[in-house]
Amino acid sequence: MSLYQYTKKRNLKSSKEPSAKIPQSKNKKLIFVIHEHHASHLHWDLRLEMLGVLKSWAVPKTPPKTKGEKRLAIQVEDHPLAYATFKGTIPEGNYGAGEVKIWDNGKYKLISKDSKKIEFELHGKKLKGKYVLVKTHYGNKPNKSWLWMKI
Ligand SMILES: [Mn+2]
Fold first, then answer.
1. pLDDT digit string (tens) for 81-117?
2. In the prediction, which pLDDT does 9 show?
């Protein structure tokens, strides 16, 4: 899935092999949504459209609006694209029971992506500008832990 190993093995400044940069389609805009999820613990779910699914991260604190703010973001299972417009109450007894609101949404531009770093530019109503997700090992789910920052 990731091109991290591809890039790591090559010096693309001296070799003419293609870079791992993800081509941007001019017609296809990518969507993002941030859900405010009143589950057993209030959290926000950042979801970015990638390869036909919504890659998703659960964020325990309010999303970062200013440079320098760091948020732990725990990667969770991919969600279907249609989840981007979902809002409502997940009934008691179900996974993630509680109210789900759309906190922000809009289009976004993927700048770069590998297995350790994802750079993107949000064009939302609340969040605008360049952001980065950087792989970390912090917290109690080290394999799923990322840091989400505005840059
Ligand atoms: Mn959630």
1. 999 999 999 999 999 999 999 999 999 999 999 999 9
2. 87
Q: Which domain holds residue 123?
A: 30-150
Residues 6+ apart with CB under 8 A from 35: 44, 45, 47, 86, 87, 100, 101, 102, 103
What is the distance in A from the centroid of ligand 1 to the CA of 24? 29
Residue 44 inside a domain? The answer is: yes
* Total tally of structural domains belonging to the chain: 1
Mean pLDDT over residues 8-32, rounded?
77
d(CA 69, ligand 1 centre) in Å = 21
Q: Is residue 65 part of a domain?
A: yes
Count of helix runs (H) and strand runs (E) in the chain = 1, 9
pLDDT at 3 over 80: no
Q: How many angstroms does the Cα of residue 41 sit away from the middle of ligand 1?
A: 9
Encoded tokens for 150: 């505005």
CA 16 to ligand 1 center in whole angstroms: 43
In a domain, 81, yes or no: yes
58 in a domain, yes or no?
Answer: yes
